[in-house]
Design goal:
Strand order of the largest sheet: 1-2-3-4-5-6-7-8
CATH architecture of the largest domain: Alpha-Beta Barrel
CATH class of the largest domain: Alpha Beta
Order of helices and strands: HHEHEHEHHEHEHEHEHEHEH
Radius of gyration: 22 Å
Number of domains: 2
CATH superfamily of the largest domain: Glycosidases
Amino acid sequence: MTTKNHTMKNLFLLLFVCFGLTVLATKPRPSDLKATPEAVKLYQKMLKLQQKGMMFGHQDALAYGTSWYAEEGRSDVKDVCGDHPAIFGWELGHLELGDKYSLDSVFFDNIKKGIRYAHELGGINTISWHFRNVLTGGTAWDVTSKKTVASMLPGGEKHQEYFQYLDKLATFLLSLKTKKGTLIPVFFRPFHEHTGSWFWWGKNLCTVDEYKTLWRFTLNYLRNEKNLHHLLYAYSTDRFSTVEEYLERYPGDDLIDLVGFDLYDRGPEYASTLGNCAMMLTKIGAEKGKIVAVTEAGGPISKNTEWWTKTLLETLHPYNLSYALVWRNPFNQPPRVAFGPYKGCPSENDFVKFYNDPKTLFLKDIK
């Protein structure tokens, strides 16, 4: 080989390596630098799907429905449209107490099985945690004290007790494995709707710094002390009016993978508020390179027979959102309080139209 050819070959190899490193560097990565390969893959998949359409999610979809409880493979959504949701929501409230079942009366063993089942189907799992007020002993809705968050932080009187809560949480999350023993990646969405003040972590119950510190302490403990790296973290507010309001208590890009908000239909201004929040959040998500979602929603589907298409879909259609998740269908309450579709629901036919729209993605669309 001549010197000239050798030089050209080396130059080609150098350019090839540099190009490869550039491609690797530009691939989106979760906030956790030690994220498992499965968590990285899920994160990248979610960002890609966000450009394709909006996934539909349902809380406790596999756990129960309006007329059934713990029937393997069943969901009210599938009863209506023949397909499961793409996003499966789960709740861990009461896990911190060492109870066998959640505050929504779902056995934690069944939640574990449901998460594995959804994962095996190709679905995506997201977890909320309405855990009890560690200071007062009340529920997550106990807002009688403005000192709860401060008491949980280093130096606080309930700091050690909060460790015990987190240890129980970590034990459960580390048990989420496939049959082959691989940790199942899940989204974890704590301290949500904090722009309101109905939870003890709400805006009027703690300072901005206390809230951010709670996030940072919690995630650092789970990552660094408990070695949890299969979690993706979701930050979700309630309604907000400005970008500044949304980001006021944002704990940092190094902690968060998904930015979202919760918003329920409680009046005529719902569609405009939902649209404005979605517009602002998609801009935030694009700037930060984060997944964007409506992390909780729900409307009067027993009264408004076109809520799915005329309110939810039409409002969110212009925006690149990863998913919209509606809340649960309680099995022990009248069907009219359900937030998801069910057989016999007045808006059942409208939900089928919602399902068939190219914008919406269900389980079959994301496998």
